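User: Hey, my collaborator sent me this sequence without any context and asked if I could get a structure. I don't really work with proteins. Can you help?
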Amino acid sequence: MKVLLLVLVANILASAIDTVAIASVSLYLNLAVFKVSLFIRPKLLRLEKWGTTFEIGSIPIGGGIQFYNRENLPQISQRASRERDLALGSKILLEWLHPLERLLVTLSGAIVIFTICSLILTPQVAITALLSGFEQIIHSSFDSEYGRALFLRVESLLDSQPIWVVMSILLTKFLSLNLLPILPFHGGAILKEIIRSLGRRNFEFSPFFVQLSCYLAIILILRWVVMLIAFCILPELPIVF
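Assistant: No problem. I've predicted the 3D structure and written it out in structure-token form, which is a compact way to encode the shape of the chain:
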């Protein structure tokens, strides 16, 4: 049960840090941000400020930033209040930025999380934990016993290391997950901006790739959730499914 609680807290921290960091950078750059959502609905809190809607959901999973663009700005502006129209008058659209600048906006949350983990673990350990996270996430998706061994490792770390060290390691694993090059993870958006920076400025993923990526992401997350719950309920039994 300790592992489950720790993973839940690490997920909340990773989502909150990532969302707040991207929102802060976007507002600092004067970007036209339509909505900042922390966690998913049903919503607990809603606030409008600086032409942007801020929402906090009741289910502590994920978060996201929705930007205005040339297509939705006139449509939304017709329904918006005069206060929002005035606030948006001097804003910059995200699509006006160079792809590398958009890449930095997308990566800002990951940079903050990695910096925090580096300060706690040292940069070398944080890099090792981050890189090993990609293999661990993919390998355990096909091998339940490997996933169980990872949970046992977290359990043993809780007995030998301060909790903030273990939490930092888990944050690097969530960072690895979020950097996988599929949608809706940040890695998918990063891959798109990299392709655009190479000359294909109007590049968009095909609907098939978007749909396939979303299915893969859902399956991956559900697989890990089931493994974690099974490990916490029956820690002595092998996880076979």
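In plain terms: Residues 1-31+97-241 form one domain. You can pass these tokens on to your collaborator as they are.
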